[in-house]
Task: inverse folding
């Protein structure tokens, strides 16, 4: 599409009740980023209240009809994806604006290939719009969805805002107070984690009326019992509180009182007469997260095993593991709305009441089929259904099995088939090739979910973002205990494949040639491993952790992997970069198959003012708790290499790291080395285990200290 053009979604696809909008960009350094926001506007072109402003601190809006799904790696970098359940958008909303903003003085001119794509519920791309001319602005409206004669249309906008997110939001009626403005440059730090991350309560499909309200505006919807009592916290719907049958019905939460962050604090008096705009309340409800440290056990000794809701001791076969894992995950999805919605929103599912089933028998020719599970979501009388096929341990998905479920779903009018296994899907490289009958009007989407991603989403909810009540947190903790047990079979990607040993030996004896298919298999599995490392680390830290892709714009993922495979054959090295939110640089991982060493490193810019010796001393002080074998290399202007040494040697003599010729210092590269595992699996001597340990050690002993001591 071109700027200003519009198109009716119904003319492009029949499956536009739910759509997925993706905003993407790239940068030469891999460091550029932006935040996505969505505004739901009424007939006057304004938000009804601040709950219609969906952004990083309010990722769900419109009764769950809009949900920010976060970043997903792509061949060009990453994309921010937004799920829209258009059938569930409130009737008074006539337009939905999709925008993105940068922070800390950054501009969109520093990014490349600004683009918006829109896909239907089956995952088929319908719209692509490239945004141009946004060089000097810090916020951009990419496009908007709007109603015309009862149908949804899309318009390509591409309008920039020099005033950033605050200016854009204010133009559409969002009340931006001082507290919110100050949070924007600070939001990347650890303040976002745990109870202090005071976004709106994520209640998933059953959330009816979020607690946050905007500026006091005339209209009955702003009147509520809570407004006459400034010290009373905002009420929460009975469903959100986990209310039982005896609780009184409370379908819609009244407006929250105008209050600062702490809901229990009284509202300060106006310093001067006259109307004063209400400060935007964050939320009056604290989310439930697990404590950082476990309580002391009452057991007499370590041989006493804690009773678990989902036991693993009786699992003896792969079939038992698949059946148990499917039932455990699907049951928790149905009972914890936040968790179920988090896993299904990206698959085009609406926000509604969810029910899950296992071992369902469906007719298929002469022999009926029994998928491992079924997920069904009901919204406004409409049903969304997905068949689930599960694999555990190292078992691969069977193409004929998945094909049969695709055919059954197409005949019965189901929307999706979801595969769940330890494997990690790669862009442009499907795990299972299925035949799609283009003659059928009804389209069925095929989606894949890895067990590592299920664990990641559970960790994010119970350790960092919080869930609705303590029972939900306990259920998720029991789910995590089950999935992370070695006997569950849900341990994630744990095998570098049959080509690993031949490729390693071919590199040792220099017989591996360019174009070898085995090298390509190793590259694909290496990419799967790196993505799983990002999921695991992100779940533990509560921060966005994504692989950095330094690919040419619009490059084919398969061509990029072939190029990396040729590089592996020539150089004998595997390399990857991951970006951890809030860190000063990119964490690089290099596996040298010739020497058998793993290198983890990060480049720290030398942007602090002062003399070179002062910079060197400051760096050594920041690394006071780092291991003595940490290697430090000085980066200088030009092509020359700077001095290097271990931290043990530099602690008494920081001046040894300064270039003797007076070259300009641009930064420092910090590196740790570790022996590489040879086996293809995850045993103690396996390659996968050694990569996990290297990344964990480097982050805990080096990167974490850089974050803690950063100005």
Result:
């Amino acid at each position: 599409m071109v700027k200003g053009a519009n198109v009716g979604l119904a003319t492009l696809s029949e499956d536009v009740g739910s759509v997925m909008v993706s905003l993407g960009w790239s940068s030469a350094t891999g460091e550029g980023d932006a935040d996505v926001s969505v505004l739901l506007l009424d007939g006057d072109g304004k938000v009804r209240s601040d709950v219609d402003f969906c952004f990083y601190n309010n990722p769900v809006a419109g009764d769950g009809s809009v949900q920010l799904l976060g970043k997903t790696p792509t061949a060009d970098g990453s994309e921010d994806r937004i799920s829209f359940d258009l059938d569930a958008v409130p009737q008074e909303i006539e337009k939905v604006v999709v925008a993105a903003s940068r922070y800390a003085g950054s501009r969109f001119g520093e990014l490349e290939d600004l683009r918006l794509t829109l896909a239907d519920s089956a995952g088929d791309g319908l719209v692509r719009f490239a945004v141009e001319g946004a060089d000097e602005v810090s916020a951009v409206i990419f496009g908007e969805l709007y109603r015309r004669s009862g149908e949804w249309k899309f318009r390509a906008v591409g309008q920039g805002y020099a005033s950033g997110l605050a200016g854009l939001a204010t133009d559409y009626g969002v009340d931006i107070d001082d507290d919110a403005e100050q949070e924007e440059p600070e939001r990347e730090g650890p303040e976002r984690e745990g109870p202090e991350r005071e976004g709106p309560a994520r209640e998933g499909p059953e959330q009816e009326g979020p607690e946050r309200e905007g500026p006091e505006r005339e209209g009955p919807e702003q009147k509520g019992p809570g407004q006459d009592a400034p010290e009373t916290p905002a009420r929460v719907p009975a469903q959100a509180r986990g209310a039982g049958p005896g609780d009184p019905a409370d379908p819609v939460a009244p407006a929250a009182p105008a209050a600062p962050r702490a809901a229990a604090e009284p509202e300060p008096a106006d310093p001067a007469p006259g109307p004063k705009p209400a400060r935007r309340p964050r939320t009056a409800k604290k989310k439930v997260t697990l404590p950082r440290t476990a309580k002391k056990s009452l057991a007499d000794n370590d041989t006493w095993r804690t009773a678990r809701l989902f036991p693993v001791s009786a699992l003896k076969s792969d079939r038992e593991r698949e059946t148990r894992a499917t039932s455990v995950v699907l049951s928790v999805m149905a009972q914890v709305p936040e968790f179920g919605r988090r896993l299904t929103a990206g698959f085009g599912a609406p926000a509604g009441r969810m029910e899950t089933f296992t071992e369902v028998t469906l007719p298929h020719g002469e022999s009926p089929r029994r998928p491992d599970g079924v997920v069904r979501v009901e919204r406004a009388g409409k049903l969304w259904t997905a068949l689930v096929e599960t694999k555990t341990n190292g078992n691969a998905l069977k193409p004929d099995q998945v094909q049969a479920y695709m055919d059954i779903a197409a005949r019965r009018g189901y929307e999706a088939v979801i595969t769940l296994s330890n494997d990690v899907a790669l862009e442009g490289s499907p795990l299972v090739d299925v035949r799609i009958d283009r003659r059928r009007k009804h389209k069925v989407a095929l989606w894949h979910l890895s067990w590592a991603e299920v664990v990641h989403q559970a960790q994010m909810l119970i350790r960092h973002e919080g869930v609705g009540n303590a029972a939900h947190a306990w259920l998720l903790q029991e789910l995590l205990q089950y999935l992370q047990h070695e006997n569950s079979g849900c341990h994630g990607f744990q095998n570098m494949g049959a080509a690993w040993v031949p490729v390693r030996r071919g590199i040792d004896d220099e017989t591996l040639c360019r174009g070898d298919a085995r090298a390509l298999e190793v590259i694909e599995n290496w990419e799967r491993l790196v993505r799983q490392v990002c999921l695991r680390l992100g779940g533990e830290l509560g921060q966005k952790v994504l692989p950095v892709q330094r690919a040419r714009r619009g490059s084919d993922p398969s061509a990029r992997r072939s190029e990396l495979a040729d590089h592996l054959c020539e150089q004998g090295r595997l390399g990857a970069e991951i970006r951890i939110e809030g860190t000063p640089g990119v964490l690089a991982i290099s596996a040298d198959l010739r020497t058998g060493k793993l290198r983890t490193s990060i480049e720290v810019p030398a942007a602090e003012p002062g003399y070179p010796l002062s910079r060197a001393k400051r760096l050594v002080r920041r690394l006071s708790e780092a291991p003595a074998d940490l290697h430090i290399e000085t980066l200088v202007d030009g092509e020359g290499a700077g001095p290097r040494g271990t931290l043990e040697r530099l602690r008494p003599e920081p001046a040894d790291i300064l270039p003797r010729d007076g070259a300009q210092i641009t930064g420092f590269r910090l590196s740790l080395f570790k022996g590489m595992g040879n086996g293809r699996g995850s045993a103690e001597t396996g390659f996968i285990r050694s990569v996990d340990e290297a990344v964990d050690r480097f982050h805990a002993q080096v990167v974490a200290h850089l974050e803690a001591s950063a100005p």
Residues 50 and 174 are 6 Å apart (CA to CA). The first strand starts at residue 6 and ends at 8. The two ends are 44 Å apart (CA to CA).
